[in-house]
């Protein structure tokens, strides 16, 4: 087995272990056993549990955000928002490991928490781009549009994170209903800001 092949086996095993137990409760020995290698070989590839988890977390954030690029253009601001919300929750439903890593737990390790923070900042950046596509907002706040877009994106992300975390413990609710609920929450506020002539 080549070094790259062994690394891929380690990542796949680590993903299973972290998904089953979470970051704090998982150990490098457990990952090594799942990968069918010795613990020293694991440390040869990844010098710490934090580095191993951070690599997986970055990969999951890449996967989540990459799906947005494939979405078709939207005719209205509501379709734009609904499409993005639907894509996020569809990704969660088919990627439980990423769902848990991004939304359901924030590891206590400072190095991993920093990777988590950077992933959240990337998500805010993506959502800011969504708000920038809305042609006009009737804001009562006297803010430059780019700053308003960023603030609205941060608020939308917080709402999405909260509902994603709630859904983790309420799997009996169908995804379509979670999308509808989230869109209602976000659109009822945003919809009132859309200028009539746009």
From TrEMBL:
UniProt-recorded Gene Ontology molecular function terms: DNA-binding transcription factor activity; transcription cis-regulatory region binding
Start-end of DNA-binding region: 27-46
The organism of origin for this protein: Amycolatopsis coloradensis
Keyword annotations from UniProtKB, A to Z: DNA-binding, Transcription, Transcription regulation
Protein name, UniProt field: TetR family transcriptional regulator
SUPFAM superfamilies tied to this protein: Homeodomain-like (SSF46689), Tetracyclin repressor-like, C-terminal domain (SSF48498)
GO process annotations (BP): negative regulation of DNA-templated transcription
High-level lineage: Bacteria, Bacillati, Actinomycetota, Actinomycetes, Pseudonocardiales
Pfam family, one: TetR_N
All copies of domain HTH tetR-type, residue ranges: 4-64
Highest rank taxon of the organism: Bacteria
């Amino acid at each position: 087995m080549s070094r790259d092949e062994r690394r891929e086996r380690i990542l796949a095993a680590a993903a299973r272990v972290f998904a089953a137990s979470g970051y704090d409760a998982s150990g490098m020995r457990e990952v090594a056993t799942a990968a069918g290698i010795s613990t020293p070989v694991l440390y040869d590839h990844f010098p710490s549990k934090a580095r191993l988890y951070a690599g997986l977390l970055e990969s999951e954030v890449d996967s989540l955000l990459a799906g947005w690029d494939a979405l078709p253009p939207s005719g209205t601001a509501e379709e734009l928002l609904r499409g993005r919300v639907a894509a996020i929750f569809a990704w969660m439903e088919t990627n439980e490991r990423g769902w848990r890593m991004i939304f359901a737990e924030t590891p206590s390790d400072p190095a991993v928490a920093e990777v988590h923070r950077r992933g959240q900042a990337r998500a805010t950046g993506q959502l800011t781009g969504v708000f920038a596509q809305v042609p006009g907002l009737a804001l009562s706040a006297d803010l430059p549009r780019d700053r308003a877009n960023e603030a609205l994106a941060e608020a939308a992300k917080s709402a999405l994170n909260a509902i994603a975390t709630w859904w983790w413990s309420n799997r009996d609710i169908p995804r379509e209903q979670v999308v509808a609920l989230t869109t209602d929450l976000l659109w009822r506020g945003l919809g009132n800001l859309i200028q009539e002539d746009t």
